[in-house]
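Question: does this match?
>
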Amino acid sequence: MEIGIAFPKVMPVGDSARIIEWAERADDGPFSSLAMVDRLVYGNHDPLIVFAVAAAVTSRIRLMPTVLLLSLRNAAIVAKQVASIDAISGGRFSLGIGVGSRPDDFAAAGVSMKARGRRLDEQVATLRRIWAGEPAAEGAGPIGPAPARAGGPELLIGGRSVPALERAGRLGDGYVAGAAGAGVSNQAQEVAGYYKVVEAAWKDAGKAGRPRLVVALSCAVGEYAAERTRESMRSYYAFRGEAAKSMDMSIPSTPEAILDGIGVFEDLGADELILEPGHADLDQVDRLADVVAGL
């Protein structure tokens, strides 16, 4: 099982050097991927812009949003942006996408939440068509640049609803399960159930092999860092109102607990686990690297 690391959900504003150094330290470490979540009505940086920066200062690590809210965006423009980052990074980009579930994001983007699943289906078809070098639409020519990988970068799809899970199996190259704070064992049980639905849809579509499984785990080294991660998660889920305050925020915060969590997801059969600290101190990259190096 590969092990990646995520940017915290929010990086300090006005400290661009920290974004660059986080990416450089991740690239120097034992991590397979550098991931990032997406929101619109939130204080985070735009993931595609951050990954464009990261592509310029890294040489090895995979770059992967987990997940980009494609439903809020124009698919043709995203296809060009993603192909550009993929080309600049030398084919190190994997695109995780999802429909999104926050009404305020859709309101701010001026996009209806109705039929967003059907919209995503159409957007995936548009991405595939553009990356294959075909005309983007009737009367329009191809959109470049060509991605580094023929047919475009790996496409992972996230979500928890049955339609989203079936979409991951039917249209994606794999499934990405977002981080949760309900405890590693409970999260693993949920992911196992989700993945069965993805696998069934994959087989029904007549696809060979198996879908890739990527899972994110909220964690941090040190109790202070763990509490900051809990605060970050509560802020991220604040749209749920009072329910966000009562969420179970079990954050592995010792090397032993994090290693146990890694073992749980390895036993589950995950292809990659993304360690997601909510604390933006740079020493978290190094301390999590030490944990991974001890495997």
Summary: The chain has one domain: 2-293. The chain has a mean pLDDT of 94. DSSP finds eleven helices and nine strands in the chain.
